[in-house]
Amino acid sequence: MDREWGSKPGSGGAATAQNEAIDRRERLRRLALETIDLAKDPYFMRNHLGSYECKLCLTLHNNEGNYLAHTQGKRHQTNLAKRAAREAKEAPAQPQPHKRKVNLKKVVKIGRPGYRVTKQFDPETKQRSLLFQIEYPEIEDNAKPRHRFMSSFEQKVQPFDKRYQYLLFAAEPYEIIAFKVPSIEIDKSTPKFFSHWDPDSKMFTLQLYFKTKPPEANKPQPPPAANGTLPPPPPPQGPPPAPPTGNPPRPPMPGSLPPPPPPLTNGPRPMPPGGNLPAPPPPPVGSGHMANFTPGAQMGRPPMPPPQGFPGQQMQGPGMYQPPPPNMG
Q: Where in this chain does the record put each Matrin-type domain (predicted)?
């Protein structure tokens, strides 16, 4: 038979070389679209006719897949290599930064040195100080210990704490030791801050003083009183006290006596403004609780009339005399 496919109905023959090339270019286009972003390609350009151009190779392409297939070809890759070589040759020679090479000395550490820390206090300047004495009996020949201050944010052994700093001591072949001290400014004046290395006794000594905090200049000091005692504290700041919820006191009626002064619990009786003692009250006339009572005078009204009733009848009330009833027999 002169046909390219088999005799089975619906079956097709083997793909030709042209069909295989089309299928391969389509698969490469899809793969390139997934891995390459055309928006970042400096040589990809779309012209006014709707087709695509390669600005490096000056080629014209009908679609994006064709352009991506071109970028993977030999022509485009060769032009990329030529462009990179030309740009490297034309670029001005810039001076390279000088890198200092430090040869690290490898020394076997033998352990930590012995040390002694003494706390001191200067009563004249009110300053606190520390005296460090580090012993290096097996230090290397012609070597001298070194020290430095380290912030809490430089080290990575303990959590950061801005209230403290570290003082480090180093000498070969001993390990570096550090002391955690308060983060206060160090007084580095000559007589107070000093370090000394004694090569005979192999002891390194360092002394430091902490600066004292200056007093607050903006805070006024309360003036002393005349007798040398401190003035009373200021009244508390806050809302005024609420008025009492009970009945208010009644004003004195005209013609009534003034209320007696409140009794004194402790201390002497205060002197009046004039400086003389008040006159004592007059003695009561009569006896009993109602000796000074006069009906009508105290309340500012006329005296009450005598009680009305039958002759011989007395008013009955609590605490009054009641005569016996007459004999009705």
A: 52-82
Q: List the one residue out of 139, 132, 254, 150 whose CA is nearest residue 196.
A: 132
Concatenated DSSP letters of 149-165: EEETTT-SSS---TTEE
3-state DSSP call for residue 23? helix
Q: Answer positive or negative: Cα dihedral of 56, 58, 62, 66.
A: negative
Last residue of a domain, one of 210, 241, 267: 210
**Residue 42 CA: distances (Å) to CA of 46, 58, 233, 311:** 12, 13, 79, 137
Q: What's the sign of the alpha-carbon dihedral 50, 54, 58, 59?
A: negative
SS3 assignment, position 168? strand
pLDDT in tens, 23-34: 887 887 787 778
**What letters, b where the CB count within 10 A reaches 16 and e where it falls short, cover 150-178?**
eebeeeeeeeeeeeebbbebebbebeeeb
Host domain of residue 74: 20-86
**pLDDT value of residue 308:** 54
Tens-place pLDDT, residues 14-67: 678 888 888 887 887 787 778 778 888 899 999 998 899 999 999 999 888 888
CATH for 158: 2.60.40
What is the distance between the alpha carbons of residues 122 and 164, in angstroms, rounded to a whole number?
A: 22
